[in-house]
Write a structure and sequence with these properties.
Layout lengths: L2 H13 L5 H6 L2 H14 L4 H15 L1 H6 L3 H21 L6 H24 L4 H29 L5
Length: about 160
């Protein structure tokens, strides 16, 4: 962890001393701190991270207002944390927990529906059962594939 990220993290802690734990969790402050460390780490080689350092410093100055009062400061904070998360996922390979499980479950449900419709056409006497089997197969395969990729992300220490 670099000197810049330590200073910013300390400033966040001092500004949010009186904040409720519920607010800290809701506003994803811990994730924000981890992303600050990553931005500091990658800022030497990534121009987007270097630019984000300026935006982070501006938002941290008023983070207590963003957490306590709805309005422009909160929107700025929300946009920044979303932008940081998206950048870390796309450019540096950090993912939220169970990211692939959720994505693959969607694709598995769609593929399972198509498979179920195909099974219904092949076995017209048992339409509902064939449809349910198709969806089940799609979801189970997607679950295991997503779980495998999520496990690889955890083993590589690339969790957001």
């Amino acid at each position: 962890m670099g000197n810049w990220s330590e200073e910013i993290t300390a400033k966040i802690d001092s500004k949010l001393e009186s904040a409720r734990d519920k607010d800290i969790i809701f506003f994803r402050i811990k994730e924000f701190k981890r992303n600050i460390e990553r931005v500091d780490e990658f800022s030497t080689s990534c121009p987007s991270c270097k630019k984000e350092m300026i935006d982070i410093a501006e938002v941290v100055e008023s983070i207590d207002v963003a957490v306590d009062v709805p309005g422009r400061k909160r929107r700025e904070y929300d946009r920044l944390i979303s932008r940081l998360s998206s950048h870390m996922r796309k450019e540096h390979g950090f993912y939220a927990p169970y990211y692939y499980s959720y994505i693959y479950a969607l694709y598995g449900a769609i593929a399972g529906t198509a498979l179920g419709l195909l099974f219904m056409k092949l076995q017209p006497l048992h339409k509902l059962e064939m449809f349910a089997i198709g969806i089940s197969i799609g979801l189970v395969v997607a679950y295991f594939a997503g779980n495998f990729k999520d496990k690889k992300v955890r083993n590589d220490n690339k969790l957001m």
